[in-house]
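Any chance you'd type out a single protein's sequence alongside its tokenized fold?
>
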Amino acid sequence: SLVCILGEMRGGKPVFPGTSTLNQLEKICEVVGNPTEQEVTAMDSPFAKTMLDSLQKPDGSGKGWKALYPNASEIALQMLTQLMQFNPSSRLTAVDGMKHEYCKQFHDPASEDAAPQPVLIDIDDNDKKSTSIYREKLYQAMDGKSLAKKGKR
């Protein structure tokens, strides 16, 4: 998600404006290339595997971030690449992202609180859900109660 936000901030428009989930995955692969079998396995999602298996895969390489953002610095392109990894364990973590050279000027460890534990959302991503369901589950996980129902969004 963060890679999309950064890309949209840089380009002023959605990075992967797909017309469907499958079309959006095709657009992602056009940029970053097709995932390897190991990357698909690491996702640990039968739904993702099914979607990726049904893609039209012309070659495997991808045109790269530079094709989308030719004026971006190498540091910015590096961060986009490190964030957009199919294998979740290969992606930059939030902490490492804040330490990245691209974000260094915004990072002040002394003024940033860390969550006492990871925020885990009890939701099955193999079933498609509405944005409001994801939002509600996230609020519940972060606060232990439903902020959305209290109108405290």
